[in-house]
Fold this sequence. Notes:
alpha/beta, 434 Repressor (Amino-terminal Domain), Rossmann fold, 3 domains, 6-stranded parallel β-sheet, 5-stranded mixed β-sheet, 14 helices, 13 strands
Amino acid sequence: MTGSGRTIRLRDVAEAAGVSQGTASNVFNRPEVVREEVRERVREAARALGYAGPSPKGRLLRAGKTNAIGVAAAEPLEYFFADPWARRLMTEVARACDARGAGLALVSVAAGQPGWSIESALVDGFLLRCGGRELLVEIAQRRGLPFVALSLDHAEPDVPAVDIDDFGGARLAARHLLGLGHRRLAILGIGLGAAPDRVQPDRVRATRYMNVRERARGYWAALAEAGLPEAEVPILAIRDDGSNVGAALALLFDEPEPPTGLLAMSDKVAMAALGWLAERGLAVPGQVSVMGFDGVPEGARTEPPLSTVEQPFRRIAERAVAAILDGPMPQGREVLPLTLLVRGSTGSAPNGTGA
């Protein structure tokens, strides 16, 4: 800016230095092609006029490529640092970006106003942590940049997504406990309400969250293989952060025949259950086996270490990052399998509790 408030532009610097605007542009963007004495003359003119250099935004827009990816979630930015699943996924996304020399930007959706940030972020595309056709997807579609949805709540044929086989992962988890002889099982559900109560299967089937429905369906499929009706396996509504797990588990462990195996729909809930069982003096896995779902790093450090089914975080990140930077984009929802991780929190059913 000049003293009169007029914005100083590159052409003003070029005129003051007695060079063409192209030469002045090269001084700032390709200095190696300009003679040293010309470079100094242009820089001196820029200093005298108070010109800070060309706009990074304008330079990136002219180039048509920023080599950076934006990540947005429906939750506040702190979610990426507070939630174990989000931290693990972001670690792998960061690694995938580092391997390609690409930048990574967390896009704020604070106060429920995501439009300004998604619509203005200087990135080549977005990874969206969202449920389905919701505000984030609609704004990304209007922006016209590539985007990949992660962890969908319901499938959308025209929403490119990289997701996991929730059904297959849950079936693996339940088969593991059943194979250890457990027949008194309970499911620790998420996304089913905040009250720590027992819920009926119809309520689980009616939830809007596809991952919850699919995980329950996977558990039930394994139970059916073992000849156990789904009605005989209680389902508890647990908050996503596991904060009410104690009140919920008390509903079952105060009964004469409590469960010997717990199938948690997330590692966070499973870890909360381990803490409550330890407080009650219940041995894991001697009296109760606990099975998680996700494969977050914290699960390996619990006492005992948590058995779980691990999401393919690295494959998810590499596929999503490659899709944004190079293509091809997923055609609808791409589904990746999970892996069974057997650790110390699961063991054989206590004597007298098997089939």
